[in-house]
Known about the structure:
Layout: E1 8-12, H1 25-37, E2 42-45, H2 57-74, E3 78-81, H3 87-100, E4 105-109, H4 118-131, E5 136-140, H5 142-145, H6 151-158, E6 163-168, H7 175-181, E7 189-192, H8 198-204, E8 208-210, H9 218-230, H10 233-250, H11 257-265, H12 283-297, H13 304-309
Parallel strand pairs: 1-2, 1-8, 2-3, 3-4, 4-5, 5-6, 6-7, 7-8
Helix pairs in contact: 1-2, 3-4, 6-7, 9-10, 10-12, 11-12
Pathway: Amino-acid biosynthesis; L-lysine biosynthesis via DAP pathway; (S)-tetrahydrodipicolinate from L-aspartate: step 3/4
Active site: 139, 167
InterPro entries: Aldolase_TIM (IPR013785), DapA (IPR005263), DapA-like (IPR002220), Schiff_base-form_aldolases_AS (IPR020625)
Amino acid sequence: MNPHGIHGIYVPMVTPYDADGSVASDALRDLARSVLAEGAAGLVALGTTGEPALLTVREKSEMVAVCAQACREFGAPLIVGTGGSATDRSARELEELAGTGVADAALVPAPPFVRPSLAGVLAHFTHLAEHSPVPLIVYDVPYRTGCALDAPTLRALGRLPGVVGVKFAHGTVDHDAVDLLGDLPPGFAVLAGDDVFLAPLLALGAAGGVLASAHLATARFAELVEAWDKGDLTRARVLGHALARLSEAVFAEPNPAVVKAVLAAQGRIPTAAVRLPLLPASGDAVARTLSALNALNALECSDHRALLRAQP
Ligand SMILES: O=C(O)C1=N[C@H](C(=O)O)C[C@H](O)C1
């Protein structure tokens, strides 16, 4: 992490597969280098986008090792997804992760499936924070975990020593987003976890985002964060709308099918394959994403008047 904390665009790396179904490590290495060279602040290994639930233990280690190497080359932080439903097992996983020495932070979901009370979630993260040698980023994604965190709970989590941020993915910009971002604990960063809502969350004060669609337009996403940092509202508004249209297209089908299909179409990964029960993206979703990308590339972002003209 930079000394000022978490900031900017973190790309949750896809797991590329070769034609024989094995993990395409060379393609992953090149992809990781390319997004870092384009302006990603760091990488996330084993985010939802990396299909961690569908990988073997050995494949997961490979993903982390390849991403760690790329981050070392660029002096960029690596966040690693880990943890699950059971508190003690999650604590052991965090210790194992710390043992690898490569993670700057761990992305840990609110315990999925169990549906504990909010006090139970707080107790879970209190235990993890007390035992984890690596800083924690809470992954708040109720539509995946079945466990919704409200603003007071997120604030209480943010005050725990060792909890440095939340990946906020409520599927909308809700009351809790407004409430939380209006009064953040010191040193606690909010990262947008729903690509389509990056711009409004930045407007509310989010520090950046963890965004699968940033594989496809890393520099543009980084530019949006920079525009907000500099108070360049015209640029921020136009870029925000164009990037939201791209993200809408990417998320028209279950992630990461569309992003992988587009990367494969661009020749950046060997195949568009995802593992069952995920299904490959439709041609229609890929075509719509490519067209949103073309529109984005047509923006002349250094010239505000051109930007305004580019608005539909
Ligand atoms: O891998 C991630 O981290 C992300 N996962 C989200 C999801 O698929 O639910 C989407 C977001 O872009 C990043």
